[in-house]
Amino acid sequence: MTDPRGALPSMTALLRDPAIGERVAAAGRGRVVAALRATLGEARTPSASGPVADHDDIVTETLATLDAEDRARSTRLLNGTGVVLHTNLGRAPLSEAAVAAMVAAAGASNVEYDLTDGRRGGRGGTASAWLARLCGADDAIAVNNGAGALMLAVAALATGRKVVVSRGELVEIGGSFRLPEILQAAGAVLHEVGTTNRTHVADYERAIEDMTGALLRVHASNYRIEGFVAAPTDLDLAEVAAAAGVPFVYDLGSGLLAPSDHPALRDEPDATSALQADADLVVFSGDKLLGGPQAGVIAGDARLVERCRRHPLARALRVDKARLAALEATLDAYLRDDRSALPAWAQLEAEPRALQLRAKALADTLDLEVVPTTSVPGGGALPGVTLPSWGLRLPGPPDDLAAAFRRADPPVVGRVDEGAFVLDLRSVPPADDDALHDAVAAVLGRGPSRAEGSGPSRRDDHDLQDRA
Ligand SMILES: *Cc1c(COP(=O)(O)O)cnc(C)c1O
């Protein structure tokens, strides 16, 4: 028997194939040749299973590889999961103003140029001033992300020193952020105190010594310890730290700037209150409850913020011009007291009834069922908090539907609830309802059945007309 692997088509022959030629014109020769080489390489390996590939197999396989590469590129999608700040789906959706600001700053911009006197200017000055004002801090600085902000604060205040943290607060925020490792990478030594469920003022007092660089509190943003628990108040910790002459740093996680009257946010710590309780520095993310772009903020005592600003890591962690512009636009909404201009807040605060109406309007034209759902804030924030919502339940095997919706244009991500594929309206901006309608119609192969009068439409138990 001859080894059929010897019969693989040549690169020259493959490049002459019309389908490959078309792809070369669209995607560039380099990408296509690399994909062909990879396919040929796989066909040549002795472990290759099945019958050996001929010319057409190689072409089909290569085009599939290139298609898969294209699908992996960054793209807009519709978030029907009901998780408002979904880390895998980009956390906070940006406001129109923030998007416009990013676009405006994308070319040449005044990121480090002072338009008043035509000289070099400080990067991020506006964001610093506005962040400080909004959380009642002396000064603030924005860096790449929350993890970067914490790392910078620890590196600036406590390199080669101990950082005292309660054992109840040694958090992991999604795989790559583990508090002990962040402290180690920042050059500090973790000094654990107390126990998982109970830590007392005396534990902190006993731990502080000459080599202590900071006292750190970390908000348990993605878990909850309940039952026999105890932890000192922020004021207690500030007192212990002040008495020992050690800075008190508070990693808040979510970026709530001031106390909120939203019932879901009653237990969420905020930057203003933490600083009022005499935390020296607070640290938080820009793309969680703040509702802005990916960023990390350090705010508080002017002298300590300045130490962070001058640290070499600050340069390594700096924010790019487009995100700075988006952060300014986000903060501007707070300064104008117009938090609802931020989609993340509009979604968190959306009334269930408004979501029900939107779901109903979509369901009626698509002949679908409306179902009550439970959405969550997400983004590693507010564990245990749920928000009543409404969605569309789709008929059919949920896994097949999920795969079909991932292939839609734009892709739609939903979730499986009680064995059914559901699209939750809370995490979809109302402006995207038409796009969602079209995606559902395309996946189900249904037009606007109601408008065409084709067939009866299923009515749910919560007919709004009856109540209005
Ligand atoms: C989310 C979070 C972080 C990490 O912030 P990123 O912006 O994701 O880097 C750090 N600490 C806490 C308490 C968090 O909740």
Short description:
The protein is of the alpha/beta class and about 475 residues long. Helices cover about 40% and strands about 15% of the residues. It is globular.
Description:
By secondary structure, the protein is α/β, with parallel strands linked by helices. It has helices at residues 11-15, 18-27, 29-44, 55-72, 96-105, 125-135, 146-158, 179-185, 201-207, 234-244, 271-276, 302-310, 312-316, 321-335, 343-349, 352-366, 398-406, 433-444, 449-452, 464-467, and strands spanning 78-79, 83-85, 113-114, 119-120, 139-143, 162-166, 172-173, 177-178, 189-193, 212-218, 248-253, 281-285, 296-300, 369-378, 387-394, 412-413, 415-417, 420-424. The chain has a seven-stranded mixed sheet, with helices on both faces. Strands 2-14-15-18-17 form a five-stranded mixed sheet. The chain has a two-stranded parallel ribbon with strand order 1-16. Strand 10, helix 10 and strand 11 form a beta-alpha-beta unit. Helix 7 (146-158) packs across helix 12 and helix 16 runs parallel beside helix 18. The longest helix is centred in the first third of the chain and has 18 residues, at 55-72. Residues 145-147, 150, 171, 173, 177, 218-219, 221, 251, 253, 285, 296, 380 line the site of pyridoxal-5'-phosphate.
